[in-house]
Specification:
By secondary structure, this protein is α/β, with parallel strands linked by helices. It contains 13 helices and 11 strands. Strands 1, 2, 3, 4, 5, 6, 7, 8, 9, 10 and 11 form an 11-stranded mixed sheet that branches. A hairpin with a 5-residue loop joins strand 6 and strand 7.
């Protein structure tokens, strides 16, 4: 049967975990096993792996486990949002947990999260403590960051505006607000959370370690260039789509305020150059630049960190403007849904 919004509204199990990934052979087995550890305590747990046209052994590894497997076709526009959207269409859970293929979830947290949502119907989505471990393609670990979102561990419930990519949602909230937009190249989680909040639901981080994500260190020039190249800084596309329902400015302020501040700083700098030259007070501009560099270096732990911060902001700003002008919004219904059903 072809998946549809009607199918997605049928609750046949308490929880569906939608795992997504592309070329995650290194991690997908552990990710699946971490979810299945909760199966005995969540009767009827449904696990769906949506593979984004991988060219490695991701599918072969996933087939070793008792889960459903779908694969996006290689000629489709591929992105994180597309995998989550297709998984949502094929899911049957009252609650849907979106998990990345390079992460391991805490089974205890999953059980507690479902219980929390059952007793708190006003919440449309929740997340918990997320840790990151830096792992390269060769499997070499090189540190990481605990509690990435700096969640206050002394509080049981913290209401927030967006959850991040790994999070649990109430299906009812997604039916009301609409599903993940498969056309968004980035920030699809922020845009979804914004719509859910605008529909009247709350979002929160609850106590407990939710998951650990294995990823590259984002604070490197290589990672900044990779994210720019793979459209992960294309916030302009999201602004275009949010503008269709009057929320372009809301998204910009809530999700990419650093791009706005960088644009303002750049504008002030460009105005200051001719003014300082005309009044022959260029030294004031020089002092201002040095002050900015010093303050940024202190905040980022050194000149290297400051340089990476500026590079990231510059890349994000550039890609935001380029993607805004290039994007021609499409309806969610235009995205293809005939995914390959592997298992």
């Amino acid at each position: 049967m072809e998946p549809s919004q009607n199918v997605a509204q049928v609750n046949e199990c308490p929880l569906t975990v939608v795992l997504i990934g592309r070329n995650e052979e290194q991690f997908i087995g552990g990710a699946i096993e971490s979810v299945l550890a909760a199966k005995s305590r969540i009767p009827g747990l449904e696990v769906i792996f949506v593979d984004s046209a991988s060219t490695d052994r991701s599918i072969e590894v996933a087939q070793q486990h008792p889960i459903r497997i779908l694969q996006l076709r290689k000629n489709w526009p591929l992105c994180v949002a597309a995998g989550r959207y297709i998984g949502y269409l094929h899911s049957h859970g009252k609650y849907i947990f979106f998990q990345d293929g390079d992460s391991n979830v805490n089974a205890d947290w999953l059980v507690e999260a479902v219980e929390f949502m059952e007793s708190h119907p006003e919440f449309g989505g929740i997340a918990g403590v997320l840790d990151e471990e830096y792992v390269d393609a060769a499997g070499v670990h090189s540190g990481g960051v605990p509690n990435v979102f700096q969640q206050d561990l002394s509080k049981d419930i913290i209401e927030i505006k967006h959850l991040g990519g790994i999070a649990l949602y109430r299906r009812e909230a997604m039916v009301v607000a609409g599903p993940v937009n498969p056309h968004l190249p980035t920030a699809e989680d922020h845009e979804l959370c914004m719509r859910i909040r605008n529909a009247g639901y709350k979002l929160a981080r609850i106590k407990g370690r939710m998951a650990v994500k294995f990823t590259e260190n984002r604070q490197t020039l290589h990672e900044i260039l990779r994210r720019s190249r793979t459209k992960m800084f294309d916030y302009g596309a999201v602004i275009r789509y949010a503008g269709q329902y009057g929320c372009a400015w809301q998204f910009s302020v809530e999700s990419i305020s650093y791009v706005i501040s960088f644009c303002l700083a750049l504008l002030l700098f460009l105005i200051a150059i001719p003014v300082s030259i005309y009044f022959q007070v260029w030294w004031i501009l020089a002092i201002g630049l040095v002050a900015v560099i010093v303050v940024t270096s202190i905040k980022k732990g050194g000149v290297h960190g400051a340089a990476l911060s500026i590079a990231g902001r510059a890349a994000s700003t550039y890609r935001t403007f380029v993607s805004y002008w290039k994007t021609k919004p499409k309806s969610i219904a235009e995205y293809p849904t005939d995914a390959i059903q592997v298992k």
